[in-house]
Amino acid sequence: METGYTLQAYEQTGHWTTKPVTSAYGVGNWKSIRNLWEVFIEKTGVRLGNGKKVSFWRDDWLGNGPLIDQFHDLFILSSFPDATVEELWTPQGWNIVFRRLLNDWEIPRVTDLFDKLSKVS
Fold first, then answer.
1. Chain centre distance of CA 111
2. What element of type H or E holds 12?
3. DSSP letter string over 52-95?
4. Distance between CA atoms of residues 87 and 52, nearest Å
5. pTM higher than the cut 0.85
6. Which of 26, 82, 97, 104 is most deeply buried (CB count within 10 A of its CB)?
7. Where in the chain are the domains?
8. CA distances from 20 to 8, 10, 58 (A)
9. Per-residue b/e over 13-43, b at no fewer than 16 CB within 10 Å?
């Protein structure tokens, strides 16, 4: 099967999932597999460990979905969008650096992010 056809048929949305399959032809078992994706996600998680292999923004390490989905506006401003949890954690706390100074209306979003991070033990 050609790669172009595969990507078109399954409409890949990210590095872990695809959009729901709506085509009636040419998708076979993958349509059924994709329909079980939400159940799979509910039953799996990321083990944080030391954070070396866990993406701060892209992995669901807090249990409510990836931070990139919850705080996409802050992800765009992040100086280190590919950072791991280990790279952003210091003994003094979280060290999340942004590419520019924040506007007044962005401060509550950062407060929400740090509130969510404060629940990590």
1. 19
2. none
3. TTSBTTTS--SSSS-HHHHSHHHHHHBS-TT-BHHHHEETTEE-
4. 8
5. no
6. 26
7. 3-43, 48-121
8. 12, 8, 20
9. eeeeebeebeeeeebeeebeebeeeeeeeee
